[in-house]
Amino acid sequence: MKWIVLGTSSGRPTARRNVSAGVLARDGEWLLFDCGEGTQYQLLRTDLRLSRMRYVFVTHMHGDHVLGLPGLLGTLNLARHDRKVTVFGPPGISRYLRDVFRATYFRPTFPIDVTEIDAGMVLETDQFTVEARRLNHRVTAFGYAVHEKARPGHFRIDDAMRLGVPAGPLYGQLQRGEPVTLADGRTIVPSDVVDADRPGLRVAYCTDTGPTDAAVELARGADLLVHEATYTIEMVEEAEARGHSTAAGAATVARDAGVGQLLITHFSPRYEDVTPLLAEARAIFANTIAARDLLEVRVGPDSRPMD
Ligand SMILES: [Zn+2]
Ligand SMILES: [Zn+2]
Fold first, then answer.
1. Claim to verify: residue 99 and residue 133 sit in the same structural domain
2. Where is pLDDT greater, at 285 or 304?
3. Does 294 share its domain with 176?
4. Are residues 184 and 66 in the same domain?
């Protein structure tokens, strides 16, 4: 599983940074978080295939997070996309898409399911769940947390053979966690032949927001927290007035939530060089990296940038 940064600039793009969007890629399909203007152009610069996009999660209705969505959906149409795309977002997202579609004579040839969410569980598939919580911004904004479900532990065939378990249905029973009794009366328990479940990975995405308990709750125990850090601490009053975080604020959320790694993003265009933001965050939460456009971060106990 990896996180791919598509845009890192707050409000408007700069020559080197596009506005907000990020992708969580797993097993050949991917989830899009936010879709600022130009996101589809950034996608062209990755190896992601548009046809594998299933879900879009929009945090809030500010333009730097949603203005790219109609264009991206339009491109899917031109590519004769035929799988359903599900969009989750705050109240207002349905009317926004409906009005743009109508005004631009856009008729999707594939199903687009738009759901206006409230806080809580917004999606459950057989492989992961997605939870939303209300953040602390000037307009209604949601953060999201993706929790992969635990994956079954590795079945040790060598041990099963050594213990004389015949191949076949008994393997399945043991894999499902049930003890089995062999023909000679011996009982084999799952832990004799199956490793413990592998915990699922967790990623939280919190932007735009001031530091808030909701972000801490979303990020609790996450392998990777993607959190906005619009300003340095010198600008804390501006941050509070505009519903944004300083780098120190983002790092405090990461520390309080006990995450594995923090990825800061959504930088004010005033910072051409984000080194001061990174240093400020690292003083509070050492395992912090600064996002840059098209950076890929492997998600896991050993989260790190993939260069
Ligand atoms: Zn923003
Ligand atoms: Zn905003």
1. yes
2. 285
3. no
4. no
Q: Which residues are CB-contacts of 177 (< 8 A; sequence separation ≥ 6)?
A: 190, 194
Tell how far the Cα of 210 is from the centroid of ligand 2, in angstroms: 11
35, 9: one domain: yes
Task: Spell 111-127 as b/e; 16+ CB within 10 A means b.
Answer: ebebeebeeeebbeeee
Q: Which of 34, 64, 208, 293 is catalytic?
A: 64
Per-residue pLDDT at 198 exceeds 90: no
With a pLDDT cut of 70, the percent of the chain lying above it is 98
Q: How far is the CA of 20 from the centre of ligand 1 (A)?
A: 7
What is the pTM (predicted TM-score) of this model?
0.90
Query: CA torsion, points 245, 248, 253, 258, in degrees to nearest 10?
Result: 150
Provide the residue range defining the domain that includes 187. 157-193
Task: Write out pLDDT tens, residues 74-133.
Answer: 999 999 999 999 999 999 999 999 999 999 999 999 999 999 999 999 999 999 999 999
Catalytic (active site) residue 293: no
